[in-house]
Amino acid sequence: MRKVILGVAVSLDGFIEGPHGEYDWCAPDPDYNFNEFFDRFDTIFVGRKTYEMSSEMEGGPAGFPKFKEYIFSTKLDKVKDGATLIKGDTKTEVEKIKKEKGKDIWLFGGAGLTTSLMNLGLIDELSLAVYPVLLGRGKPLFNNIKDRINLTLLETKTYSTGLVSLTYSLAKKENERTT
Amino acid sequence: MRKVILGVAVSLDGFIEGPHGEYDWCAPDPDYNFNEFFDRFDTIFVGRKTYEMSSEMEGGPAGFPKFKEYIFSTKLDKVKDGATLIKGDTKTEVEKIKKEKGKDIWLFGGAGLTTSLMNLGLIDELSLAVYPVLLGRGKPLFNNIKDRINLTLLETKTYSTGLVSLTYSLAKKENERTT
Q1: Global confidence as pTM
Q2: B134 contacts in A (CB within 8 Å)?
């Protein structure tokens, strides 16, 4: 089954945006192999806010390959041509997409969609690019996660800029354990 | 000059305690070299809450070597024999202690003291033991940090349990830069 992988840049104190929406702290690392990262995916999950922000950029975020896009929103009634709107029953829809043939699915954000999918147990892997900065304030990546989630470390990579890439798979939630 | 090093266990989502004060998620890693860690220090900085909690344990936290202890509190009037109470002017007192001869100083916590010393620019290194768990809620390590702080990655270590140790030195705050 295809995996849903949360892949984001985060400050050491867990923010994905600075207090005024800044992204200047997470410039792409010259040594980071984006092609290898991108090559794993053919599909992207995007929340409404991220969609609205990135659709202001012509052709989506710069440098991204062409992914099949799913936009998650209860507010929107239509999305751009070629993209698919997921309006309700996230669990059923995501499980259906995961069962389709294809490469893995990149959960690109934002924080709201991440929380929803995390609490529904629909995320299979976390791939965090931890930047060497404390932002102090901003938008936290993890927010309102209901239950403790145990992780299994899959990989760490360290870059000369001080970026550390941490990849984890998600174990079952504590309260779903049978032991 | 002696360094002040914040050395703590933290969940991947940045908590130092679970929502009900739990520490069960950060059991000491059998492969972690505590002796090497402890050997770097002869002095420990402790906040009031951590002091009150740890002084309930006989002889302080189990397995700790004998450190010179400084307790930071505006509320307490006295502390146990052998420990020193720092009641006011944290900046002056800490700068004085840092200039004394000795090994480095372990900032053991808690969150309040960490924030104070961070905002006063008195912490030289962060040594985070990142446990492979999302707690969802609890007491955050970093809270009310006023300004963005750039970090320099010094070392990463990965353990078979999934623990990742990340060590950073603290650069000057953004607003203290002269460029």
Answers
A1: 0.90
A2: 118, 142, 145, 148-149, 151
